[in-house]
Amino acid sequence: MTNDALAIKKRPTRQRHIWINSDRVFYSGLMGQRTTRVMGSIIIFVSLSDPILISINDGEWVNTDLAVVQAYTPHRIDCGNRLVAVFHIEPETVDAAQLPDYLKAASGKLVDEALVQRVRDAHLKINSLGDIADPQTEDFDMFFFGQLLTLPRAFEPRIASLVEAIKRNPCGQATAIDSAREAGLSVSRFLHLFRENVGVPFRSFRSWKRGRSLLYRLMDSTNLVYLALNTGYPDSTHFSHSVRQVFGMTPTLLFKNCQKISMYGQTIHPPDAT
Questions:
Q1: Domain that holds residue 92
Q2: What does pTM read for this prediction?
Q3: Same domain, yes or no: 115 and 166
Q4: Average pLDDT estimate for 212-216
Q5: 161 and 137 both lie in a single domain
């Protein structure tokens, strides 16, 4: 990692952080309610003190220091009032076959004491850092995992272009019909090709990216109704339902849990919905 990427400054120690760009998220903080959440990223949970509890697909609760949840897998997490480290790795940025074994594992509890200790050490180091000046995805991977994970999938060119467009503007209003027309395909062919390449339906992918975009806005004091409209939701009811489905908590609780958080990386949020 370059010296420019991590500029060390004297500042008060803080325990809650979010480091974000379009490919990765690191979050350390509280997790809110035990309700079911479904996210479109590969997720790693690491306890930062006492063990956490995790339930996959409404299964039994399991006590662990480390867990992985594969993309779009319903799960519940409970860490009480203890801090937990959470990583989000966007599946379209990696080749699943080339990932380390712990990222290819079935959703649920893992045992890897070395990885847990590496993450805890990285969290302690972040507590002493100043601003992180727009690090690249490769910086993130090396800092937390000690290896590069970025191995983009070989998408069909039209699908690759659309995926990047959605990532640049996740709050955009383009429909499947619009996207099919742009790609020069029938709607049915477009939807089939998208799922074949990306691994999930177009609507699921777009919904996740829109929900994920809220992570850029956690420091935004805008009224939640305006925030809902700015992020492309038709009204506050749809906004609240989506936030509950993705994050397992109400919008109010989501933003409350992220008060006094230190935010790094690509902190300028994507364009508002148009």
A1: 17-145
A2: 0.86
A3: no
A4: 85
A5: no
